[in-house]
Amino acid sequence: MEKKKVVERTEADIIAEKPEVVTLAGKTYEIKPQKVRENLDWRQKCGILSGKLVAGFEGLKEGDDVKVKDVLKDVMPLVFGEGFDVATEMMFAYSEELKADEEKIRADATDEEMTNAVFVCFRFGYPFFKAMVDGMLKVLGVDLRVIIKEATKKK
């Protein structure tokens, strides 16, 4: 399967509210940017869904003598297991078109396709998401393009 080049949306695309095309289970979908009120409603739903992930940190208090490995032991399964499930629920909540095909997408899409669609929804639904991630990676000295390139190399 040939990897598709990720195309960044230009400022003109953003202003024009152009959708982003994703492929899930062999079918292409257009994920459209939502209006402010719709995004607000979606973010509120996301807060409820993502509350499960936050629960892993609830027992921690400032000054507690907690070992990092103990925190990771509790939180990592949520982030890498249940976290992906929560993120896909958020994706289906963002797009009515995806929600309508949820059964087929869950049956036939790959995790890579789902991850791409989740990130598109997050970029549209959380306007500062991309800037925040880019900023964190810059501070850490990480180039996301290199990570993606390495992760998608054929072995």
Structure description:
It is a single chain. The protein is mostly helical and 155 residues long. It has one domain. The protein contains 8 helices and 2 strands; from the N terminus they run H-E-E-H-H-H-H-H-H-H. It has helices spanning 11-15, 36-54, 68-94, 96-100, 102-108, 111-125, 129-140, 144-151, and strands at residues 20-24, 27-31. A two-stranded antiparallel ribbon has the order 1-2. Strand 1 and strand 2 (27-31) form a beta hairpin. The radius of gyration is 17 Å and the shape is globular. The two termini are 13 Å apart. The model has no long low-confidence stretch (mean pLDDT 75).
Short account of what is shown:
It is built from eight helices and two strands; from the N terminus they run H-E-E-H-H-H-H-H-H-H. With 155 residues, it is mainly alpha-helical. It has a two-stranded antiparallel ribbon.
Protein traits:
globular, 155 residues, single chain, mainly alpha, two-stranded antiparallel sheet
Q: Kindly state the mean pLDDT as a whole number?
A: 75
Q: Low-confidence parts, pLDDT < 50 over ≥5 residues?
A: none
Beta-strand content bin: 5-15%
Main sheet: which strands, in order across? 1-2
Element pattern in H and E: HEEHHHHHHH
Count of helical stretches: 8
State the share of residues found in helices, binned by percent: 55-70%
Q: List the domain count as a whole number.
A: 1
Task: Provide the structure class.
Answer: mainly alpha
Shape: globular
The number of distinct β-strands equals 2
Distance between the termini: 13 Å
Rg, alpha carbons: 17 Å
| Major sheet characteristics | 2 strands, antiparallel
